Amino acid sequence: MIRKSLMLLYALSAYILATVTLLYVMGFLADIGVPKGISDGAVGALWPSILINAGLIGAFGLHHSITARTSFKRWWTKIVPAPIERATYLYMTAIMTALLVLFWHPIPITIWHVKSGLAVGLIYAAYIGIWTMMSAATFHFGHFGFFGLAQAWQNFRETPSKPSSMTARYLYALVRHPISLGWMTAPLMMPHFTVGHLVFAGATFAYIMLATPFEEADLINEIGEPYRDYRDRVPTFVPYTKARRDQAVLERKA
User: Fold this and answer.
1) SS3 category, 110
2) Which of 47, 86, 123, 149 has the fewest C-beta atoms under 10 angstroms from its C-beta?
3) How far apart are CA 237 and CA 211, in angstroms?
4) How far apart (Å, rounded) are the C-alpha atoms in residues 104 and 59?
5) How far is CA 27 from CA 76, 133, 139, 187, in A?
């Protein structure tokens, strides 16, 4: 029981750390309320800064992609107990985020700077709305499981975990990857948008485009035909595009 209690405490600490990490990233991108924002620090040469920052995003994405693969998890759970596998991933993500922030090179070259009070308020409202959407998306398939707490709690109570299932409701009825969509759009919702933001947004976009096919292959292996059907019906990132495309195909055939 002591071991299970320690696992639960470990997972709870990971959940709190993950929440703090996400809040820090929100502040980092917006340059608000954090010790180091995306435009803070000594400014260096342009192209080395771009390459270093893109490399940091790439390293973060590579960590995410490798640790998210089913084959890695099968190997990893031989070392880390399954009930705290997800929690351990969150600790690793927090470390990768800290490295990204620590070694990020500011590139405060202005691309646009909105100064109207109303427009600035609307942009920040959209920014907060995107993060709220991303948070809401985690509840679709189990918020506490997504953040590793449910697994440790089930282990503590000695209750079986629920098998994976496929449901297409709410945000997931509009797009297959609302969280990835949020990561691609949040860096753009800035009243003062710099080259640093552009590099963050561009590198994140490139990573998501490269990683999504691998993620979906894992989902097909795990869920099977229901996910194939879901993939055929629901667009990847942009809502309603499949419906418009299917309608256009029907009109061409008519």
Assistant:
1) strand
2) 47
3) 13
4) 12
5) 32, 17, 23, 11
